[in-house]
Amino acid sequence: MRRPSLSTALLWPALLVMVPLLLGPLLLLAHESLKPFVGGRIGGDESGALTLQNYAQIADPQYVRYFLDTFRVGLLATAFALVLGFPVAHFIVRRAGPTMRRLMVGGLVGTLFLSIIVRVYAIAMTFGPHGPLSDFSRLFGISASSPDGAELMVVLGLLNSTLPLVALTLIGTLQNINPRLEDAALSLGAPRWKTFFQITVAMSLPGILSAAIIAYAFCISNLVVPMLVGRGFIVFVSNLIYFRFSEVANFPSGAALSMVMMVISVALFYGLLSLVRSHWQEAGK
Amino acid sequence: MSLSRRDFTRAALAGTGLAATGLSTLGLLTPAQAAERLLVVQWGANWIEVSKQILAEFQKTNDTQVAWELHSGGSAAVVAKIKATWPRTQYNVLSVWDPVFRAMIAEDWLLPIDESIVTNLKTIPDQYIQKNAKGEKMTVPLSTAGAFWGYRDDLLPGGFSSLEDLLKPEFKGKLCVPYPINLTGLLIVSAAIQRGGNERNPEPGWDFIKELASKGQIGEICTSNSEYINAMATGRYSVGFWNNGGWFATAKNFPVKLKNRMPDNKGFLYNEGFCVLKGSPAKAAFEFANFFAEPKMNEIYNMPLGSGPTQPSAKANPMIADWYYTPEELPKYAYFADFAYLSSVMNEWNARWEREIVPLVRRG
Amino acid sequence: MKRFADALFQTAYLSLVTLFVAFSVIPVVVAVVLSFDARGFVGPFPPTQFSLRWYDRFLADSYYHDGLVTSLVLATSATFIATVVGALAAIGLHHATFRGKGLIQAALLSPLVIPNVVLGFGVLIFASRLGILDGMTRLMMGHVLITFPYVMRTTAASLVGIRASYYEAALSLGAKPLGALWQVTLPLARTGIIAGAVFGFVTSFDDVGVSLFLTDAFTFTLPVAILAQMRANLDLTIAALSVMFIVATVLIIVILDRVAGLDAITGRGVYGR
């Protein structure tokens, strides 16, 4: 059997490059997270005995809220991104004429290059108090100046950054789904919406989940969006970590938060991935 | 990438050096000692612009070469980078402020200022200068800066008279304040002073902030100057607490009044300036710092920053004339916080803010 | 009834497409306007005075030029490494049958979910433990780490619809494994690889979290340079820069389209029309 050996060979470069790059920093962070911290100093105390106090501090129930906020806001943005992104990808692959298709794909790739800082400022201006769409939040029954208004801005900021990512990923998926299946269903008299959901969406599920994972990963690890439009009300775990590494110089506490965040996210991610794979095998049958 | 930019810069500098040696052997250049190179960390925007201007003056009489790096995170971010590689560091001179001076003095990273070179230190008031445990002078203060309450006069004509007013319903969502680690917890100290406490007795301050937070008075919590400037420009907030830099930029576009002479509160003063890291070319670094501390340069330096000069003979920007205090007013209105103490509790205060204040403001 | 449901579906479908386009275009339009804003603060929109000050500032300041060069070099080389290594790994995993494959995949993709600040700080202490003080090397380490998962993820996603049977068919027709890979799997995965490379490049080019900790005095990336300028005061240079980049990207896309056709880049998929 030569197949397994070839596929392993293809994996080796990645393992050689990525394993040290991942494990080195993570092991050092894990070590840092166990060092005691003395207020006013910079970083952990090298000579002190290792301790779990940094973990004990963030075990406070109030910190659970930051994790929940991060995961919830990320989920909202991801859900919106899929709801908007899938029809667009479908439109581009199935309905758009060559010119329209070119225009839209070109536009999507173009907007990828819009710096996230500019994106967030642009959104803040558009939906801000003087912006042309300042009343937008009312559609959701939210006052723009309330904490929920801040959350909406964070969702919009994340959504805008993930949209091109999601749409482009889904274009790849939809291209590999046989359009004849849809045509067949339609010609047999199935309603359009039923065909769309029961054939197109169902068959793209692995790709949708894959796009969702990318979008979700992007959202929950984001630092810039909550920092710029969260108004200090919406604080992601990344922000807590950033403050520790960059402002209060409490590296051990930052490292401990990083470890917790990492374990939760990787577990979540792994769970979702297994989901994708089980669907994928189904799709492959 | 085998040739890094640094190697390249080094090679280029070596090349210039070689050329200079060639020229000097031909007698075309007066032989001078090899030029030292300094790496100076400075704030962006106006800070770096005025610094480059002064450097150009400096280099007319001194062949020291200077490379600039800008603070990209909080000023502690550069500290993290130094910590990771200490004692091998590229940095020589850092432009930071009192709390960071204290942290670096505690790490024993700084060279005591050599007053035989930094002669201009003599005329700078002693209380501006940070000292180590042995009493040695460790900093060259260039600016007197401050953190004050203030308001936009166009949105809130007449302003408010006491911080207690800010609890009234009409101030709901109207306050823009710093995250506690910005300005090293001075917001909480200010609230504490309002209720009879101080930095070592901050409980009354925390209570006051909790009251503000649970009433929904706090509309935005900022983590940098530009965020504050943008927030105050939206017109959504009428009252704020921030440093002179943020107020100065806001005042350029909107009518701003500072509440730095309230009977029941204080304005906070601190210093910004240079310090020199161990392992630096000391003579060049001190000459560089000394040039910036010279009264005329000190005046030029502070003019676009909205901060006060530290040299008594230097003139301040007229726009900020009543932002700082006359010597007679100092004891009445000015407060010099204990930054060594504050930087030791900052971690604790930050965690406390995350646990106790954010949940309150989040609820709205 | 069916006609009504279909009409409703059609309306919903098209409004979502319209909403997407509107929401994607708004920030671009605002960014273009912002980049010509004469004011030094984010004020009411639209601005009343316009100027080229942010373009001037970018063009005049060597600090930004240095950052741009570093960012381009860094993003290009990190993406190149990540693309080669990541695409191979995705294809390898696609064909792999061994146990623990899911675990390896999750581990290799994990930088995607780890906050960039964590990776940045981690690489900083790792590099200094190894004695690497050079900014470019550190940055390269961090950026390969963040770009790799994008390539691997999208390559894997594009392989999802491709049945392993194509590859097996090629083998049974007498192709060598490497040849089958080169002639069958790789072209089919092309869309994913290219999309991953583009995402990777953009991620690297726009990264703040990782780079913040890894730059040194002589090697700093453009976003870090801009962020540094922006901490002290608002600086819309970044808006000007983004606009220039969008224009450049669109130009490149148009040229590519003229020369090779856009489909050559995005591919047409297995069932391309």
Automatic annotation (TrEMBL), chain C:
<feature type="transmembrane region" description="Helical">
    <location>
        <begin position="103"/>
        <end position="127"/>
    </location>
</feature>
<feature type="transmembrane region" description="Helical">
    <location>
        <begin position="68"/>
        <end position="91"/>
    </location>
</feature>
<protein>
    <submittedName>
        <fullName>ABC transporter permease</fullName>
    </submittedName>
</protein>
<keyword id="KW-1003">Cell membrane</keyword>
<dbReference type="InterPro" id="IPR000515">
    <property type="entry name" value="MetI-like"/>
</dbReference>
<keyword id="KW-0813">Transport</keyword>
<dbReference type="Pfam" id="PF00528">
    <property type="entry name" value="BPD_transp_1"/>
</dbReference>
<feature type="domain" description="ABC transmembrane type-1">
    <location>
        <begin position="68"/>
        <end position="256"/>
    </location>
</feature>
<feature type="transmembrane region" description="Helical">
    <location>
        <begin position="12"/>
        <end position="36"/>
    </location>
</feature>
<keyword id="KW-0472">Membrane</keyword>
<keyword id="KW-0997">Cell inner membrane</keyword>
<feature type="transmembrane region" description="Helical">
    <location>
        <begin position="234"/>
        <end position="256"/>
    </location>
</feature>
<dbReference type="GO" id="GO:0055085">
    <property type="term" value="P:transmembrane transport"/>
</dbReference>
<comment type="similarity">
    <text>Belongs to the binding-protein-dependent transport system permease family.</text>
</comment>
<dbReference type="GO" id="GO:0005886">
    <property type="term" value="C:plasma membrane"/>
</dbReference>
<dbReference type="InterPro" id="IPR035906">
    <property type="entry name" value="MetI-like_sf"/>
</dbReference>
<feature type="transmembrane region" description="Helical">
    <location>
        <begin position="208"/>
        <end position="227"/>
    </location>
</feature>
<feature type="transmembrane region" description="Helical">
    <location>
        <begin position="178"/>
        <end position="202"/>
    </location>
</feature>
<keyword id="KW-0812">Transmembrane</keyword>
<keyword id="KW-1133">Transmembrane helix</keyword>
